[in-house]
């Protein structure tokens, strides 16, 4: 399946979508019957390159935007279990072949998938509807490993599906992308675990 540049790919049409290096979208297999469905979410032997230390459950109301955030020192994966979530990505790793590449994605509870977010790839979540999102992280929560920039900075190159989203005070007052680019370059997150980056 194809996706036009600027059009968010959905979990069902990932292969043709240019995602930043190391960002992967793994379809999950729901086993449905008359009672509902069951899908495995995590197996240690899946080659996601991510070994969670912490799991979080994010509940977010419709028209809420969280981001843009980036973690220089830990990786995450997320799975939307209910609702429709627009995910914006921006690669801020100076040594990445997809440095400064942006990508939009649409995740829904109906098409379950696991999205990996390597350290140094900035991300923002916009909830079209109320959403429930599982977030696994390779490190315990550390607010100093959660940097951000203003979601609406035009230099992000993100075509957000919203004009006036609800934001946290921190996200509303976030610095421009240029400041975040410099901060992430100083932190030098390298490439994601499991991918040789010459170090
Ligand atoms: C992320 C996180 C937050 N918290 C707490 C801190 C605070 O009281 C409350 C809400 O945290 P925040 O305001 O930072 O949440 P939020 O603004 O939603 O931040 C999140 O945005 C998305 C895009 C991500 O990628 C996450 O990693 C995280 O950065 O939850 C934890 O206890 N553990 C955690 O792992």
Report on this structure:
With 199 residues, the protein is mainly β. It has a single domain (9-29, 49-187), classed as Jelly Rolls (Sandwich). Helices cover 8% and strands 34% of the residues. The chain has helices spanning 169-172, 177-187, and strands at residues 9-10, 25-27, 31-33, 36-38, 54-60, 65-70, 76-82, 84-91, 102-108, 113-117, 121-127, 131-137, 147-148. The strands form 3 sheets. The chain has a 6-stranded mixed sheet with strand order 1-9-8-11-6-13, covered by helices on one side. Strands 2-10-7-12-5 form a 5-stranded antiparallel sheet, with no helix packed on it. Strand 3 and strand 4 (36-38) form a beta hairpin. The chain starts with 8 loop residues before the first strand and ends in a 12-residue tail after the last helix. Mean pLDDT is 90; it is low at 1-6 and 194-199. The site of dtdp-4-keto-L-rhamnose has 9 residues, from strand 6 and strand 11. InterPro entries: RmlC-like, RmlC-like_jellyroll, RmlC_Cupin_sf. GO terms for molecular function: dTDP-4-dehydrorhamnose 3,5-epimerase activity. It comes from Hypericibacter terrae.
Q: What are the key terms here?
A:
single chain; 199 residues; mainly beta; Jelly Rolls; 6-stranded mixed β-sheet; 34% strand; disordered N terminus; binds dtdp-4-keto-L-rhamnose; dTDP-4-dehydrorhamnose 3,5-epimerase activity; RmlC-like_jellyroll; EC 5.1.3.13
